[in-house]
Amino acid sequence: MQHLLTLVGEHLDEMVERSVTRVQRDTPQFAGLPPEEMRPAIRAGFVSALAAFREDRPASAAELAELAGLGAHRAEQGIPLQALVQGFRQAARVVIEAAHDYNDRYELNVHEADLHAVTQRVWEWVVDALAVASEAHHSMELELARLDSGPRADFIRRLLLGSLGRADTMSLAPRHGLDPSRVYRAFRAPLDGPRARQRLERMLGSSALHEVIDGDLAGVLLQPPNRSPDLIALGLAVPLTSIADSFAQATLALETARLYGLEGDVDIGDVAARAGSITGRALAEIAYGRCFASLPQPRDQRWTFEATLTAHLAHDLRFEDTARELHVHPNTLRYRIRRFEELSGLRVDHTEDTVTIWWALQHLRVNDTPESRK
Q: Are strands 216-221 and 265-267 parallel, antiparallel or unpaired?
């Protein structure tokens, strides 16, 4: 076994280069670091691990302190914890592969059980190393967030609310990790529950920049999240200098989602018509009068027509499906539709009239209260 460890030590430079290449290839967050910056840290980790293996001991206090320093340094460089963990694992795999390779190449005839023990020992060392490196990484992140929270929060608020000029946007964005040459989406998500923020931040990832605004998590991101279980309202993708417009759209999308009971990712582009029932209330009220003013009064007597039309439009004017939902005979449904058309002068199967009816029903949904039924 000692012969194998000696060979690994003799080929340390080769393992360091393989580790740098693999980590930068498989962990994108490290791709931007110069290889000469990564080599000393990887080499120091290998030297510490080999010394512990030869002496059959755990990592010393000094070695753990060095690993803690590495974790803190990676946090300062903006390397997220998940990437740090991935980098440790990739380097460990290089060591394990090298042990098997050298055993075969130099015909050391190390037993399979001993090779398995080496593998287990490597992973035990990685667990110990990650424990201190991760703790130091987290502590440094908290400290950096504390120092940066004031300026960052102010920047996000001013950016989203439109009080940051074009020149300031272009100069300040790179300081907060945003690329002024790219387009971003504004988002707004309600913080419903004590763990909502943690869930949202994990799902949005490190590329999103966000802050709490009026009780909601709000910010910018490059791409919408995939199939969010939480409600996240999204504006259109725009240049950073126009992100306030996207945030206004995200705010409207959130209001629309709450009104219509929508969940997950709600893109303003997908709910534009429904959002119009909120922003265009005056026009929707006119449409409602056009459809229902000539129907029987008071409002409660018009309920059958409103419920029938709502179901019929929801089923794309399919009589059989609508009748099944309303638990009526298709002929009864046809009579109701025909009677509505006679009283209103509209044709349910004419495109322009259908749009008017849909608009009126959205107005009804938005404004349906006990007082409105009188």
A: unpaired
User: Where does 25-137 show beta strands of DSSP type E?
Assistant: none
Average pLDDT, the chain: 85
Using the predicted structure, report yes or no on whether residue 239 has a pLDDT greater than 70: yes
| Domain chopping of the chain, boundaries | 2-145, 172-268, 280-373
For residue 348, CA distances in Å to 125, 289, 319 come to 73, 16, 12
**Rounded CA separation 76/343 (Å):** 71
For residue 239, give both structure tokens. 């240049």
One of 3.30.70.140, 1.10.10.2840, 3.40.50.700, 3.40.50.620 is the CATH number of 280-373, namely 1.10.10.2840
**Residue 368 region by backbone torsions, left for phi larger than 0, else alpha for psi between -120 and 50, else beta:** beta
Q: Model confidence over 129-147: pLDDT tens digits? A: 999 999 998 888 777 666 5
Reduced to 3 states, what is the DSSP secondary structure of residue 374? coil
State which amino acid sits at residue 211: E
- Residues shown for the chain: 374
CB atoms within 10 A of CB 11: 14
In the block, residue with structure tokens 């638990």: 327
Bond into 190 cis (ω within 30): no
Contacts (Cβ under 8 Å, ≥6 apart) of 275 = 252, 253, 255, 256, 268
List the end-to-end C-alpha distance of the chain, in Å, as a whole number: 90
Compare 103 and 85 and report the one with higher pLDDT.
85
- Ranges 87-96, 110-119, 167-176, 325-334: which has the least confidence: 110-119
**CA of residue 341 relative to chain centroid, distance:** 47
CA distance 222 to 245: 16
pTM of the model: 0.50
**Residue corresponding to tokens 């997908």:** 270
Token duo for residue 102: 């050298």
Pick the CATH number of 2-145 from 2.30.30, 1.10.490, 1.10.10, 1.20.1410: 1.10.490
On whether the CB atoms of residues 159 and 169 are closer than 8 A, the answer is yes
Q: Is 356 left (phi over 0), alpha (psi -120 to 50) or beta?
A: alpha
